């Protein structure tokens, strides 16, 4: 099994090279991308089954180099699960982009550079999830940065270049802080391997640990779009092509959250900043959802809800119990799938109506009932209505907080409930105006406009473009992702059990130390976590 682990990164990189060689042959590039991501999905599913059924995590020391000089790739239940979910999302978005490219040509996603960049982005995501040391995690982030800048500026429009510059400047600041933290950690402890750091961090004074801890948290919080470091996201994501926006919204911030989970549960177990994280989580939830309520454009509404729901994940991390960590992992899986699905549905709305402004779009319930359903189901799921996975995840988080029972926990529970209700309000208002409001309902329209007149000055409130045909593959892909969101509810029992086992394992890093030490000695090994 250990021989499969490096393929999670090398296959997308190899696929990117092949796609670049065949830059003028669209079908070859599409075939290479589909085959590559399908193989990664199969390998990740096999690894997930292996580590879950056997109870054994897998560590691979690349090239057999000893720690701290070698690169250790580490796959446990958490890493394998996130690679599986990421592969599903990347495949779905790729199929969506194939349909868009077939209908529009290279206007939105120039095929020559899209597929290589997309596969490099995938390699960066997978590398971050299986990195066993901080520097390899940094490399994964930098791969993401390079590929995402290319993808976010596809088409080279003025708005995309402008937001792309903001995005890359913010990302570079985060990377500089991360690299400085890595240098400081290496200077203090002589290693950046997570297993060794888990053993040695306690040797440092608490004040030094706190500085290093906050530096890493600052770097990861920028990437995860945690308030007040989330200012860049709502302006950056909506300008990108629909497939790019969907994959960014679903995955990129979760890589930052994943890094926070690893460092909080493995490296800084004895350096407690949970109170700070709880306050930041509450601010992220409330500010994000208030921003969503104030928007008149669907992609900006979803971008702000993305920020607010990162707050739920930080909330779960800050509770810092096995139950809370399990609930956080479940909610992360839910949010990756549901947020991606909603952005794909908005991509269909944009093509059908020529706009994503809720002040401009109307009558889609009658004109496009399928799109109405494809938007409605994940919208109420994200809003947390029972019995969907959004409700299950939030209830599990609130229950874990109630078990701790401190006053701050109850404040966070109330804040989470308010955020959920406002999320539901923002999305149902958007659905009502865009789908339920009829084209010929002039009286109703005047009344509606009067009630939401304050949205007239919101960004992109007056946006209107040409309507475009919707290829069947785009609708089918979105429908498939909606089916996956429903599956998160249908199979919530076994999935939540898996997530709970992950939460339990994250509280015990001792065997991780032994696992990676053995990997360095024998190139690879497997032990019970």
Give a quick precis of the structure:
This protein is mainly alpha-helical.
Describe this structure in words.
- With 529 residues, the protein is mainly alpha-helical.
- The protein has a domain at 272-518.
- Helices cover 74% and strands 3% of the residues.
- The chain has 21 helices and three strands.
- The protein has helices at 7-21, 26-54, 77-104, 111-130, 134-152, 158-189, 194-200, 206-224, 233-236, 242-267, 274-293, 298-319, 322-353, 364-367, 369-382, 389-404, 407-436, 442-451, 472-490, 492-506, 510-522; strands at residues 57-62, 71-75, 524-527.
- Strands 2-1-3 form a three-stranded antiparallel β-sheet, sandwiched between helices.
- Strand 1 and strand 2 (71-75) form a beta hairpin.
- Helix 12 runs antiparallel to helix 13 (322-353) and helix 15 packs parallel to helix 19 (472-490).
- The longest helix is centred in the first third of the chain and has 32 residues, at 158-189.
- The protein starts with 6 loop residues before the first helix and ends with a strand.
- The relative contact order is 0.12.
Number of helices: 21
Radius of gyration: 22 Å
Overall geometry:
globular
Mean pLDDT: 87
Q: Would you count the extended β strands for me?
A: 3
Strand content: under 5%
**SS class:** mainly alpha
**Residues in helices, as a percent range:** over 70%
- Write the element-wise H/E pattern from the N-terminal end onward: HHEEHHHHHHHHHHHHHHHHHHHE
Summarize the topology.
Blueprint lengths: L6 H15 L4 H29 L2 E6 L8 E5 L1 H28 L6 H20 L3 H19 L5 H32 L4 H7 L5 H19 L8 H4 L5 H26 L6 H20 L4 H22 L2 H32 L10 H4 L1 H14 L6 H16 L2 H30 L5 H10 L20 H19 L1 H15 L3 H13 L1 E4 L2
Antiparallel strand pairs: 1-2, 1-3
Helix pairs in contact: 1-2, 1-4, 2-3, 2-4, 3-4, 3-10, 3-13, 3-19, 4-5, 5-6, 5-10, 6-8, 7-21, 8-10, 10-12, 10-13, 11-12, 11-17, 12-13, 12-16, 12-17, 13-15, 13-16, 13-19, 13-20, 15-17, 15-19, 16-17
């Amino acid at each position: 099994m250990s021989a499969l682990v490096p393929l999670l990164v090398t296959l997308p990189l190899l696929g990117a090279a092949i796609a670049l060689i065949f830059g003028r042959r669209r079908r070859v590039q599409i075939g290479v991308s589909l085959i590559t991501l399908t193989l990664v999905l199969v390998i990740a599913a096999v690894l997930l089954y292996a580590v879950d059924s056997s109870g054994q995590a897998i560590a691979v020391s690349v090239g057999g180099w000893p720690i701290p000089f070698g690169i250790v790739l580490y796959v446990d239940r958490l890493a394998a699960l996130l690679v599986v979910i990421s592969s599903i999302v990347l495949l779905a978005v790729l199929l969506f982009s194939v349909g868009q490219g077939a209908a529009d040509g290279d206007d939105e996603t120039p095929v020559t550079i899209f597929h290589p960049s997309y596969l490099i982005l995938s390699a960066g995501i997978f590398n971050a999830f299986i990195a066993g040391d901080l520097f390899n995690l940094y490399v994964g982030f930098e791969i993401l940065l390079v590929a995402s800048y290319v993808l976010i500026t596809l088409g080279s429009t003025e708005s995309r270049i402008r937001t792309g510059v903001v995005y890359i400047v913010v990302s570079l600041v985060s990377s500089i802080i991360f690299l400085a933290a890595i240098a400081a950690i290496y200077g203090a402890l002589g290693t950046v391997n997570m297993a060794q750091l888990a053993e040695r961090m306690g040797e440092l004074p608490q004040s030094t640990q706190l500085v290093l801890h906050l530096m890493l948290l600052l770097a990861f919080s920028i990437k995860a779009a945690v308030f007040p470091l989330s200012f860049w996201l709502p302006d950056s994501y909506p300008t990108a092509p629909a497939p790019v926006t969907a994959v960014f919204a679903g995955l990129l911030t979760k890589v930052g959250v994943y890094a926070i989970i690893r460092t909080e549960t493995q490296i800084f177990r004895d350096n407690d900043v949970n109170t700070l994280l709880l306050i930041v989580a509450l601010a992220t939830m409330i500010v994000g959802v208030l921003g969503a309520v104030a928007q008149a454009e669907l992609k900006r509404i979803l971008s702000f809800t993305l920020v607010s729901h990162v707050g739920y994940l930080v909330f779960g991390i800050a509770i810092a119990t096995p139950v809370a960590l399990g609930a956080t992992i479940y909610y992360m899986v839910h949010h990756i799938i549901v947020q991606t699905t909603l952005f794909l549905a908005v991509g269909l709305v944009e093509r059908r109506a020529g706009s994503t402004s809720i002040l401009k779009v109307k009558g889609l319930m009658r004109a496009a009932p399928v799109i109405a359903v494809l938007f409605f189901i994940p919208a109420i799921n994200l809003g947390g209505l029972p019995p969907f996975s959004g409700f299950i995840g939030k209830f599990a988080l609130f229950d874990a907080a109630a078990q701790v029972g401190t006053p701050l926990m109850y404040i966070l529970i109330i804040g989470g409930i308010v955020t959920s209700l406002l999320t539901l309000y923002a999305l149902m208002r958007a659905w009502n105006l865009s789908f339920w409001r009829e084209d010929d309902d002039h009286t109703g329209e005047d009344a509606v406009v009067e009630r939401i007149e304050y949205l007239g000055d919101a960004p992109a409130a007056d946006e209107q473009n040409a309507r475009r045909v919707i290829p069947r593959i785009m609708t089918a892909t979105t429908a498939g992702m909606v089916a996956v969101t429903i599956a998160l509810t249908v199979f919530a029992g076994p999935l939540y059990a898996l997530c709970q086992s992950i939460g339990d394992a994250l509280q015990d890093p001792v065997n991780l130390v032994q696992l990676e030490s053995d990997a360095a000695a024998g190139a690879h090994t497997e032990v019970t976590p």
